[in-house]
Amino acid sequence: MTARRPRGGRTVHARRPRGGGRTVRVRFSVRELPGIAVTAPDEGAAAAARRSAQRALTEAGRGHLGGRVELRAPRTATRSPHGRRAVRRAADRAVALAVAACLRGDTGTAHVPIPPPPMTRTSPP
Known about the structure:
Blueprint: E1 3-4, E2 12-13, E3 23-31, E4 35-39, H1 43-59, E5 66-72, H2 81-104, E6 109-113
Parallel strand pairs: 4-5
Antiparallel strand pairs: 1-2, 3-5, 3-6
Helix pairs in contact: 1-2
């Protein structure tokens, strides 16, 4: 974090956004035309987000609609196999929440935290 001194002499620290680098962010906007357009960091996440949005729309009885999904996920969480699975699960949940919020009339955004990797033991108990 950076610090700067205002005129009063107190140090003010810059604030980091909440959620840091362990959050999946999704924005969904509904369209009248069928089909889901996805913007995502990689093809695997895009395919999972597309399937999740189609499933959420059909479960809500709006399968004839389409939309646009914007998915943002941290790249640092996708280095390990557990990280890729965790990001994919969090993205699946975030897309479903964003679609449901958009169909309710709210803003179609959702933020879902990525769970940390499980603790492993290196020595016997």
